Automatic annotation (TrEMBL):
Gene3D superfamilies: FAD/NAD(P)-binding domain. Residues 1-12 have a biased composition (Low complexity). Keywords: Flavoprotein, Oxidoreductase. It catalyses: [thioredoxin]-dithiol + NADP(+) = [thioredoxin]-disulfide + NADPH + H(+). Residues 28-307 form the FAD/NAD(P)-binding domain. Residues 1-22 are annotated as: Disordered. This is NAD(P)/FAD-dependent oxidoreductase. Pfam families: Pyr_redox_2. The keyword Flavoprotein applies. InterPro entries: FAD/NAD-bd_sf, FAD/NAD-binding_dom, Ferredoxin-NADP_redctase_2.
Amino acid sequence: MSADASAESAAEQGPTSAAEPIAPEDRYEVVVIGGGPAGLQAALILARQLRRVLVLDSNRPRHSATLEAHGFLSRDNIPPNELRAAGRESVEQYETAEIQFAQVTRVQRDGTGFIVEASGVRGSRARRVAAERVILATGLKEHFPDLPMLRAFYGTHIHSCVVCDAWGKRDSRLAVFGVPEAKTLAYRAAQLARIGSHVTLFASEEQVPEVDAQRLRELGVEIDRRELEDAVGEKATLTGMRVVGGDVVPVDAAFVLPSFEAQLSYLDEDIRPDLTDEGFVAADNFGRTRIQNLYATGELTAPGPEVLIISAGKGARTAIAAHRDATGF
């Protein structure tokens, strides 16, 4: 049987039985779950300390619809998939580092360490490995307002990161809106007031109190209290936001504030870390959770989504903490 056929067969069969012993080559000092900027940066730091590290990445990034990543020093305007590919290349040049596309299905406690099970993706084999430490770097799942056509424009004309994407929409007519529980819409509108030619904030009084709305009006922001129904456009170009009742407010681009969810169902219940009130993984400034030898980094930890270079920096800091903890000093 060919190597490719063997890998395909293993992926179909799923992880091996929990009763089977784990081979020495499947034992790692650190397993990083997630291959975005935070996870890859963590792996790079650990590899440079001669730690044996495995990155398991489902290859389903949150920014898959985004055409360019911005604000990353020396990589400004790079497509996110190219940034991730460059990161993998940097990590894989180290002999103690390994990266595999795989969907983690279970993490369970094994003494002071962990057993990590993953199903293969993109033709890769299923894995069952042992890890002395695990770093969670899986990012977050976005939940958007219920607008039927939002996804059609997301990543091109509708964005979620003002710091990342507002510069490219300067001197445009901009809209700002978010999920019902959004708390920072006023701040986003104030940011955009210096960028756009005209800014319309769609927000209820619960989202943006009238006292804040008045301050925004003084900055030139129009406050529209009507409920949004959909995004509209022509030939894949956003032209407006339609409110309930049918009126369309002309815009050239929009910024949406989604809610976010940390997906941790693959962790056995006894090793699930605490969450903050906002739903992020509770960890110290270095990514240590309340679970011994379990770390979280990047967007998973407060304050949540940030520009990619900050996520990478958090990954580096967490890797340094994991390395230091492993030394025992």
